[in-house]
Amino acid sequence: MACHDEIEVSAGFPPIAGEDARVLVLGSLPSQASLAANEYYAHPQNAFWKIMRELVCADGTYAERCEALQASGIAVWDVLARSVRPGSMDADIQLGSAVPNDFPTFFAEHAGLRLVCFNGKKSEQIFRKFVQFPDPNSGLRFEPLPSTSPAYAALAFEEKLHIWRGIIGPEIDKENR
Asked: 94 Cβ partners below 8 Å, 6+ apart?
């Protein structure tokens, strides 16, 4: 009988979310760098925190950046609670082992949500595969965003920032008017 390596399951993090969150940004599953650091978007070349610094002045320590997101009404989570994914590429996520996060509970607990954004195409594809969309009358809008991953190099940082600002910015600004 042949020996098999134990398959390692990647497990996600709890959401960064205040009770008054209006925007939810969804990734797929934390990368190896994020898992090692126990922080969302920890890879130094990932543009997520750089974009958030531009949009809501999220700067400083990880805790300070998370506080800035919450103060601005932005929540961050992943579509998947866990899955087998060798490496950090979304293409390597083994969907047969994927378990989605509990979105019905999250949506019920965050009734002020108005916008759900997908950080890259893969998170949107996984969400559509595993998660039942809320009632169309819920008032939730779903929008794709270009991935902040360094693997997605089709757009320069400035182009990504422009698109993120155009979609998320109005929701942030509504509260500040």
From this structure: 83, 84, 85
Contact (CB, 8 A) for 175 and 22: yes
95-132 in b/e burial notation, b at 16+ Cβ within 10 A?
Answer: eeebebbebeebbeebeebebbbbbbebbbbbbeeebe
Q: Identify the residue whose tokens are 């008032």.
A: 139
Run of H or E residues at 29: none
pLDDT tens per residue, range 19-36: 999 999 999 999 888 999
Cβ partners under 8 Å of residue 69, min gap 6 = 16, 52, 56, 58, 75, 76
d(CA 20, CA 17): 8
Q: Which of 38, 46, 119, 137 is catalytic?
A: 46
Q: Which residue has the tokens 């797929």?
A: 28
Q: What is the CATH architecture assignment of 13-176?
A: 3-Layer(aba) Sandwich (3.40)
* Structure tokens, 49: 């925190």
Q: What is the amino acid identity at position 96?
A: G
Reduce the DSSP state of residue 7 to 3 states and report it: coil
Question: What is the distance between the alpha carbons of residues 113 and 153, in angstroms, rounded to a whole number?
Answer: 30
Q: Is 46 a catalytic residue?
A: yes
The predicted-structure confidence for 129-157, as pLDDT tens digits, reads as follows 999 876 767 789 999 999 999 888 889 99
65 token code pair: 């950046």
